[in-house]
Amino acid sequence: MIWILGGPGWDEMKTTLLVACVTSGLTFVPEVHACSCPMPQSAASALQAANAAFAGWVLGLEIIPGTGKDPTRYRALVYVTHQWKGPTRQRFEVWTNRGDAACGMSFELMDFVLVYATREKGKHRYWTSWCDRSHKVGKYDDFTILRSQAKILAQPPSF
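^ that's the sequence the OP posted. Answer follows.
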């Protein structure tokens, strides 16, 4: 059967398509974050604001339980392949709050990530968040834009 927009059978076809999309998982929901920070509008502005900027593979994750008013946090170990700013390290430890409400990054093992990080005052600890524009490579085009300016530190690790 062929359906014509607004023609006979159109209402049944719309219902069939809606049910098919919902049951197959083809729903289109925009990305939403519970935090309210303004993310930098471009790769250049994120790079300028960061104390360290690098791309690499997430090789380790540690969940640090929250205490009192401190939220639960992640400490991620990133095997750095590309660097733009900050100390030159083959392995870079970066911290983030855990969860969207705290604007934390959702690091996952073996993800290739681009990290814009800020050094914690008085410590050698670097923090990142969704608000810094850090993300899994491929989500935005930052890596493609910045790649030619990167210092190559290593080839991807063999897994």
